[in-house]
Amino acid sequence: MAHSPSSRPPFLRNWLVWVAGFLAFPVAGLIGGVVVGRVDDTASALIGGAVAGLVIGVGQTLASNHRLQAVRWIPATIVGMSAGLFLGAAAVDYRTSLADLALMGALNGLIVGACQAAALPRGVPRRWVWGAVAPLLWALGWTVTTLLLIRVDEQFIVFGASGALVFAALSGLVLYGILPSRSNADTPASLPTTAATT
What is the pLDDT of residues 115-163, one digit of tens each? Predict the structure, then answer.
């Protein structure tokens, strides 16, 4: 008996689509870099973080298979990225050593994770898990990017594609644990999901 593509396990299908959404991170970095250049002062951190948050929020919503609600997730990601990058970059005085970027990532992830956890669909009982793991995953994203000898001294807004791929793979497992299917969302996302590889 032939199996249709739709017969693949929902977990694997949803996880792979979410992982493909890692592309939102390098795109966010490129667009944010065009807008503000280096992250080396308060204005560039706030504005660059907001621009990157918009792109990442849209990308994650599209890759979530209706599990995330665009009207909640995207604004939360914009606010979280703007405030988080400002806090993280200022805390390390805009330095780019491995330790500095890991700390910046952890602080950025702390704020982004808290904002996104609050934006998860109503009635999700374990939303705190997302907020708890986000600082670790953001720190890991910067660590992977730095260890692969990417030019982090150019003071990027967000870690590169390598760090984003690791982040997406691990965060996808967490998201599925919190929202195993789109039936957990009380309303579908207001953006289409046909472009899930954004």
Answer: 999 999 888 889 999 999 999 999 999 999 999 988 888 999 999 999 9
Give the global pTM. 0.85
Q: Three-class SS of residue 64? A: coil
| Secondary element (H or E) of residue 98 | helix 98-119
The tokens for 108 are 């950025």
Q: Give the residues of the chain that fall short of pLDDT 50.
A: 1-8, 183-198
Dihedral (CA of 142, 109, 120, 79) sign = negative
Query: Within 120-183, where are the H helices?
Result: 127-147, 161-178
31 in Cβ contact with 167 (< 8 Å): no
Alpha carbons 100 and 91: distance in angstroms, whole number: 9
C-alpha 126/C-alpha 10 separation (Å) is 20
> Which amino acid does the sequence have at 177?
G
| Cβ neighbours of residue 55 closer than 8 Å, sequence gap 6 or more | 24, 27, 28, 31, 32
Q: CB 145: neighbour CB atoms within 10 A?
A: 26
In angstroms, rounded to a whole number, what is the distance separating the alpha carbons of residues 79 and 57? 10
102, 141 contact by CB (below 8 A)? no
Both structure tokens of 198:
């954004």
Q: Are 157 and 32 in contact (CB under 8 A)?
A: yes
| d(C-alpha 41, C-alpha 71), whole Å | 30
